[in-house]
């Protein structure tokens, strides 16, 4: 007769190790993807309509709102499409140095006839606000005066439509 010794602690430890390694792999793949968007994505500048609240829990940050987001909200409301939970694509035209100008919206990104400088940016409506990528820029404590000069959010647009905030720029589109 063969006796099998069940060792639940070893089995649990192996599962924990495997899950930990899978978690690290997923996090690293996400970082690798974001670095690729940062490095290879197309530059897009969105004019800011900034606010500057403070958060004791999170440190200093600038809440960001975009001129194109306000224009999109007005268009959605005017057309009767405004809903609290909505997503789609905003059509913009890229001007000099990648500055984007609002041109319209779509609810799908297929069968759209675009010119050479037009791009589709993803948007979502959540909690009564149009969200385009990031809505906050965090900075080191005491640097608020430096970022008060921000007039544009600098983004990178990936081929799949992902939009990544990578910096802030002044009125002359110079990096801060």
Number of domains: 2
Oligomeric status = single chain
Low-pLDDT runs of 5+ residues are none
- How does the overall form come out from the CA principal axes? extended
> What pattern of helices and strands is seen along the backbone?
HEEEHEEEEEHEE
Amino-to-carboxy terminus distance:
76 Å
- The SS-based structural class is alpha+beta
Q: What integer value in Å does the Rg equal?
A: 22 Å
Largest sheet: 4 strands, antiparallel
Strand order across the biggest sheet?
5-4-6-7
- Compute the average pLDDT: 83
How many alpha or pi helices? 3
Protein name: GDYXXLXY domain-containing protein
Pfam family, one: GDYXXLXY
Organism: Shewanella dokdonensis
Transmembrane segments: 12-32
Overview of the structural elements:
- The chain has 176 residues and is an alpha+beta fold.
- The chain has 2 domains: 7-40; 41-169, no CATH class.
- It has helices at residues 8-40, 67-78, 144-147; strands at residues 42-47, 54-55, 59-63, 86-94, 100-106, 118-126, 129-131, 136-138, 152-157, 163-169.
- The protein is extended, with a radius of gyration of 22 Å.
Task: Describe this protein with a few key phrases.
single chain; 176 residues; alpha+beta; 2 domains; four-stranded antiparallel β-sheet; three-stranded antiparallel β-sheet; 28% helix; extended
List the helices and strands and how they pair.
Layout: H1 8-40, E1 42-47, E2 54-55, E3 59-63, H2 67-78, E4 86-94, E5 100-106, E6 118-126, E7 129-131, E8 136-138, H3 144-147, E9 152-157, E10 163-169
Antiparallel strand pairs: 1-9, 2-3, 3-8, 4-5, 4-6, 6-7, 9-10
Protein name: GDYXXLXY domain-containing protein
Keywords: Membrane, Transmembrane, Transmembrane helix
InterPro entries: GDYXXLXY
